[in-house]
Design a protein that fits this description.
Layout lengths: L26 H7 L13 H4 L20 H14 L6 H9 L26 H14 L3 H13 L17 H13 L15 H6 L26 H10 L34 H18 L4 E3 L7 E3 H13 L3 H14 L1 H7 L1 H13 L12 H6 L7 E2 L2 E2 L1 H6 L6 H29 L1
Antiparallel strand pairs: 1-2, 3-4
Helix pairs in contact: 3-5, 3-14, 5-6, 5-7, 7-9, 9-10, 9-11, 10-11, 11-12, 11-14, 13-14
């Protein structure tokens, strides 16, 4: 089914996993990452795109695909989703993520030699960094890594308050949104993080809001970037979450009144950048609902030269965005589509795909362990090292991590010995009684 809104191709997003550093992504880059849940594609000719794949995947990394495009991204989403459902990730998985950080606090997609210092050629990425911040802040115990990463993010904020994936480039709605989520996760107040010109992240994000511009079908939408501005469902899903100060993890919210399109005639929504966060989020949510309703409760991806097809990752992001705004009834309709149609996509794309679905289920108070007949949590766990612990039970790794030489295992052995001793005492007592009778 063809898209009902933008006539221009949708720009891939970091939240869906296929996103360019700039709008001018080549067809080669698009082909490499099309359909991946977390495979950021860099600008044409960048070292990240043409570098050789590692011969052996590092210990602790989730997934089996080449990590040079998305290693930190997919690792962060996997760890965050596990934490959200009460799974304690394996220590090597957390160590791998922390070890990817540069000394200045930034992260890139993948460093094959983490012991080697980052230099000027290292492709530092705000999206990878912001994703890592959200994961490490949730897991706890990584305050220094989080602090340094947040410091670096602040240092590369654009004058208008926005962020680009690659520092020094024009900002975009998706990158700005994921950084807002990172700031909030790290305990910062995003509105207080201002650029040299006094602009906040919300100031920057609202510049991508089209508001009442263009045709009525596009009212409330956000664009990916200001240059060549066009309504973009992917950017709208990211921005409708970010403008509320939310990140990847959205707690279920109380249901609000049914959505209505922006009130453009009364002027309240007519001025881009001059609207409250709540109204901007509602306008974006209304646009998303219109897109979902027009496409059978899923969003579509229209890559250059390819036929429009269902975009599972961005549909999951739309579910989270609607839930963030308190639109649970509207969010559950595309969630039902995901439950019926996302299984194959997740199996093909691995940890970040499973993580996106887990987070969509969490945002709507759904059970990710019974998701259209699939156990997303078990499937996610299977893409990486065995978790340190699961809800209600502990693994051997968890016992060893307790620092007592075996934790629960020690007590199990003690219990067996006591039981054996009691049985032996009973047996000997019986024999004594028999000999004296």
């Amino acid at each position: 089914m063809a898209p009902t809104a933008p006539s221009a191709p949708q720009a891939p997003s970091p939240r869906s996993g296929v996103r360019p550093a700039r709008r001018a992504t080549t067809a080669l880059a698009a082909a490499l990452v099309l359909g991946a849940a977390a495979a950021p594609a860099y600008a044409a000719g960048s070292p990240a795109l043409i570098s050789k794949a590692p011969k052996k995947l590092p210990d602790g990394l989730y997934g089996t695909k080449d990590p040079q495009y998305d290693g930190v991204w997919r690792q962060s989403l996997a760890l965050l989703a596990q934490h959200t459902v009460g799974v304690r990730p394996a220590a090597p998985a957390v160590r791998w993520l922390v070890g990817q950080q540069c000394a200045d606090g930034a992260f890139t997609a993948f460093r094959a030699e983490p012991g080697k210092a980052c230099d000027a050629k290292t492709m530092r990425d705000t999206n990878q960094t912001a994703a890592a911040v959200q994961a490490l802040a949730a897991l706890g115990g990584q305050d220094d890594a989080v602090r340094k990463a947040v410091g670096w993010l602040k240092s590369v904020q654009n004058d208008d308050g926005s962020w680009a994936s690659m520092p020094g480039s024009p900002g975009d709605a998706n990158s700005t949104s994921v950084v807002i989520g990172a700031l909030a996760a790290a305990g910062q107040k995003p509105e207080s993080v201002t650029s040299k010109k006094g602009k906040s992240p919300f100031d920057g994000l609202l510049t991508f809001r089209l508001g009442c511009a263009g045709k009525a079908a596009a009212h409330g939408a956000f664009t990916f970037q200001l240059k060549g501005a066009a309504p973009n469902a992917d950017a709208t899903a990211a921005a409708a979450t970010g403008v509320l100060g939310r990140g990847f993890v959205v707690e279920p919210a109380a249901h609000r009144a049914p959505l209505t399109p922006p009130a453009c005639k009364d002027g309240a929504d007519a001025k881009p950048g001059k609207v409250s966060a709540a109204r901007a989020a509602d306008g974006g949510a209304a646009y998303l609902v219109a897109q979902l309703d027009g496409n059978g409760q899923h969003l579509v991806s229209a890559m250059p030269g390819a036929k429009p097809q269902p975009d599972v990752g961005n549909t999951a992001d739309a579910v989270v965005a609607l839930a963030a705004g308190g639109h649970g009834a509207e969010a559950r309709r595309p969630l039902a589509w995901l439950e019926k149609n996302a299984a194959d996509w997740a199996r093909q794309n691995g940890p970040a795909a499973y993580a996106q679905l887990v987070l969509a289920a969490h945002a709507t108070s759904s059970d990710p362990r019974s998701f259209g007949g699939s156990d997303l949590v078990t499937a996610l766990n299977a893409t990486g090292p065995a978790p340190a612990s699961l809800p209600g039970k502990h693994t051997k790794d968890a016992a060893a991590a307790a620092g007592d030489g075996g934790g629960n295992t020690v007590w199990w052995i003690i219990g067996v010995c006591l039981a054996f001793g009691a049985g032996l005492g009973f047996l000997l007592s019986g024999r004594r009684k028999k000999s004296t009778s």
